[in-house]
Every structure is written in C-alpha cells, then in structure tokens.
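Before the break, one more example. Copy the sequence into your notebook; we will annotate it together after we see the structure.
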Amino acid sequence: MRAVVIVPVLKAARAKPDPAAPAPRSDEARLEEAIGLARAIDLTVAFSAIVPVSQPKPGTLLGSGKIEEIKAALDEHDAGLVIVDHPLTPVQQRNLEKEWNAKVIDRTGLILEIFGRRASTKEGTLQVELAHLNYQRGRLVRSWTHLERQRGGAGFMGGPGETQIEADRRLLQDKIVKLERELEQVRRTRQLHRSKRKKVPHPIVALVGYTNAGKSTLFNRITGAGVLAEDMLFATLDPTLRRMKLPQGRTVILSDTVGFISDLPTHLVAAFRATLEEVLEADLILHVRDMSDPDNGAQSSDVLRILADLGIDEKDGAERILEVWNKIDRLEPEAREALVQKAESQANVIAVSAISGEGVDRLLAEINQRLSGVLVDRDVVVPVMQLQLLPWIYDHSIVDAREDLEDGNVRLELRLTETEAAELDRRLGIGGKPVREDWER
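Here is what the structure looks like once it is written out:
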C-alpha cells in the first residue's frame, strides 16, 4: 500500500520547552523514524512532510490549509493511507478520514500494527491483542449509524435498552478481562521458570535499548544464536533467553527484549510488563545505544525514562546498568577513535561493534567483572564420594588448575566470589553440615 507520512510539529510546545525535560529530537529525526516505522510493515512511503502546527484544532489537529495540501498530495501520489506521527483523538481521526477520503492512523496505531506483525509466540500475541483492544475501546465514537441504534430492554416495561456502542464497549471489556486473565497465567508461568532458574542461580544479563540499536545483533554475536536481526524498527518483539559461558568460565543467562521507542503508549508498556519483568529480575542491564545515530542522546533519555517507569530508579540503575556504545563501525575513523577513547575514560561504558566484533571481548570481561565482584582464591580437594559437585563448581567458579589424585580425589585451584565460596564450603561439609548424603541419594 502507498502511504503518506506526516509529522506535526506543535509550535507552542517548542516555544515553551520544559527545562527539566531532555533535549527534544530534531524534526528530521522524527520524520525519518516515522518513515522507518511505516516501512517496517512493508508500506511504500510515496510522500512525507514535516507539518508546522501553530494552533492545534480540536476537530482535526491540522488547519484547513494543511489539510488541503495533504489531500492534494494523496491524489497526486495515489495513496490510500495517511500516517500521522502524533496522537489523534477518535474525533480527529474520524474527521481527517472524511476530509482526505483515506484511512488515517496515528503513531500508537502504527506501533500496534507493527507489534501485531512481529508477535510470533502465544505470549506476544496476547500482549499485542490486549494493547490493541485497550486502544480500540477509546476509538468507539458515534461515527457510524449502526452504533446509534438501540436494543430493547428486558422486563415488562421494555425501557430504552442499551445503544449498540454500549454493547460493543461491553464486549470489548469482556475480551480485555479474558486476555488479562490469560496474561496473568503467563506471568505466573514466567515466575515459575524464574524460581527454577534460581535453584541453579545463574546471573541474568538483560539487553535493553532503543529499537534498532543493534541489541539482537549483539545477542547473536555473544551467544551464537540465530535471532532475527535486521536494519528495521522492531525487528525483534518476543523475548529470547540463552544460556552462555563467559570466556572466564562463568555461566550466565542472556535475555534479549523488545526495543523501546519514544512516546510509547502507556497501555503498551502495561501490556508488555510480563515480558519486561525479565529486565527487573536482571542482575546486570546492558543499555545498547546506536552511536551512529545523531539522535542517540534523546533515544537514551527515552530508554532511561521507560526503565524508571518499570521501577529501576537512577540510584539502582547506576549499579546495574552498563552502557554499550554500539555501531562504532559506522563512524568515520577519527570520530570512532575519539568515541572509543571517551568510552575508555568512563567506568560505566564499553564501545563495541556488534557487526565486526570490535570491543566485544572487553564487554564480556566487564560483564564477568561486574557479576563476579571481588574474587577470592581457593584450593580445595573434592573427595571421590562428592565428585558430583564438579559440574556445580565449574559453573560457579573459574578453575585455574585441576589435579586428579591417585586416591580418586580431585584437587582444584579456584577463583570465586565469597558467597559462592561459602556455598561450596557448605556443599563440601566444611564448617557446616555435610551434604554427602544428598549426593548419595
């Protein structure tokens, strides 16, 4: 389908910016992102424009002159769809469709359409459907005659009954309640999986970032997985978990999550909360940024704002969030060198290229350092009757040397955290109750 993409720019909002708010993204960047969103669902963008709005109109948002200009563009390019990169009220959407004789969707509707295409698991489909129903519930206005008819009431007196629009709203609410119950079951299932993982406590590392920042490409580079990774907004929607070993021997679980985007509707965040709970549970969060995008600063602010909405505050985030400056391969040599040096001068930043692999080794070493904390050296002898402990030891420590003794015991030189050292002592029965009987059973 051929589409027209417009980005309304409200002059009043620009004239009085909020001093506490981050620097707004440029109009050109907003237009480029809107075009990218349209192309993500295989639309052909025949015409695009930035439309200044001096005074928003309650009924149409745009003035009559701009409406005529866009109608002419629709006729000239034979387009049947208009994407307005701005929230539209139900009345504004209806009126614009009448004026242009074309389908009109706003930013929220476009994002929902993309999510609907990308969802591949049952959970993802449920989340998209719930968000779409919540969006659709607000669009039920008296714009069609069949919604104005009344149905008869019950009882001897009859009464006015309920209008069709009220019936439709009730049906939508019933569907929403049903979906919320199903998603609650999904949440419980996720909690069950997490509780099982905690019994074999591997740290969780979650990838977050603005959409198309390169999270899935980095995920594939680190784990060798085959997750869909394309130069496309919202290429990945459903979460992916993979167990992997760091080069130093530690086992972690890496989680790839849905990309964030500016002006993400509240009900969308709520619908995907079950998925984003993986971020809340993570021991370490990798905030992946596309440093080749001139708007990466504003994108970073959007991501941090959504993390704050999820409950990860600034103080907590400073300890748990590691910034990954990605796509340095797209920069000019001088700019790339300056960026790498800047990253090296900061304790909380690693510069990488997920495509070429540059900086990934440093990233893995930093992940290991963050998760390990202060390591202690230990020399232990594992008795022959407790050799079942060896897999646990290899998963939870760095084994520097191993010696198989003549009596069947195994001597190991280890580096591990104090917490894991205490757990190893408990399992070996050092300074506490022996656990040999557990292993013999």
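The longest helix spans residues 164-199. The CA atoms of residues 257 and 276 lie 7 Å apart. Try to locate both features in your own notes.
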